[in-house]
Amino acid sequence: MRSTPGNYVLILHLPKERSLKVGKLGEIELPPGHYLYCGSAQSGLGPRLARHMRADKALHWHVDHLTSVAEPLGALLFTGGKEGECQLSQTLAASSLVEAAVPGFGCSDCHCLTHLYRVRDEAPLSVVLDMLRSLGR
Question: What is the domain range of residue 102?
Answer without folding.
Answer: 6-136
